[in-house]
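Q: What does the assembly look like in three dimensions?
Context provided by user:
Components: two
Sequences:
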Amino acid sequence: MKKTNVFGVILAGGIGSRMGNVEKPKQFMEIGKKPIIIHTIEKFVLNPQFERIIVLTPRQWVKHTQDMIRKFILQGDRIDVIQGGETRNETIMNSINHIENKYGLDDETIIVTHDSVRPFVTHRILEDNIRMAKKTGACDTVIPATDTIVESCDHKFITNIPDRSCMYQGQTPQSFKAKKLRDVYGALSEEEKAILTDACKIYVLKGEKVELVNGEVFNIKITYPNDLRVAESLLGGDASC
Amino acid sequence: MKKTNVFGVILAGGIGSRMGNVEKPKQFMEIGKKPIIIHTIEKFVLNPQFERIIVLTPRQWVKHTQDMIRKFILQGDRIDVIQGGETRNETIMNSINHIENKYGLDDETIIVTHDSVRPFVTHRILEDNIRMAKKTGACDTVIPATDTIVESCDHKFITNIPDRSCMYQGQTPQSFKAKKLRDVYGALSEEEKAILTDACKIYVLKGEKVELVNGEVFNIKITYPNDLRVAESLLGGDASC
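A: Here is the predicted structure of the complete assembly.
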């Protein structure tokens, strides 16, 4: 195994305690005859810079995810499927602890964290993330806001319309020097942890630099039922993805 | 003609001086075998609350737009096609002046302004706009931000990640009591006019109330080439639009 000290971290949900009787998390829905999460994992597998790819899923879906990987991915031996935490950030912490225990962690270890339901991430975006995280220590993938952004804190009247030229829509990957991320997160109070659901926001509030990486309009998160149709049309499309 | 004092204002571009040799503005691209702008106009035509529907296009596209309306829309007699202005807000002012000259304007005259390239606006959204504009004087159609919103004023590092629960993505329609909008806009300096490209922002900066109307995720603006495919899949889809 090549020791690159760069790890893919694919976030596919936490312990799943609040999921009730939902049939199947959306990462297992199929587009182009494969589960969405498989498309996503493939993008990481194709990049030799990733020493390992850690996939974090709800407890009860670990085995199913492993089965899917065995079924669809030839080079599945670089992938570990483990259980996520109670929140997105706890899930990321699980991945860092796993890397430390199994592969060793130092100040330069990079994690590239990515939503399992963003299968259209590109090689270029992954490369830019790795390069920028090595250089700056943290980066976030964004696109310029296409819509006007409107602020309303009472959810009834507009309180502000910020200058659109400063506004971006966050995507993933978000990439970090893993040890530092764990240190900064560990120093938060329980209250802060509850509020700071975005890993990059932890850095911003602590005055740490997070550099921007250009995303792509088509690097969509499959969230709504209609996104599945959009995703099918993106898959059937030209070489842009 | 029913005197409702409510007017649809469909924004399809200004004088077009900066368009160079572009072949066809995107509102004339076809989805479901009809130009996008026709789909949009139809949504307004189907609502009897609109006394007239004013369509504003670049000068050189006025005739073509009229031809398209004659070809595709049976009740085309409620539609006026006129030339837009140099900016989005100037185009809106053209519509207000046109209404004043041809149909009369009073304090209660409502305009429902809408992007010509948002064909998936619904009857419910139009009704809510009319009701809210009558009540509050101004409203903006928005959806809760699906992505995390990231602010970067230097376009290199994140400067802020605002609380997502306060953030919305602006769509259209934006609806106003027309006379007041013209008054508020008219009181701006030339400098302010150049900066305030969003009509609702004029109100917000002047301390005037703008109420939120719930949009729809599928009320997309057709901006990028890929949006055309998305739009086709929305058209072919279920009854949600």
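Follow-up: Chain B touches chain A through 48 residues (CB under 8 Å).
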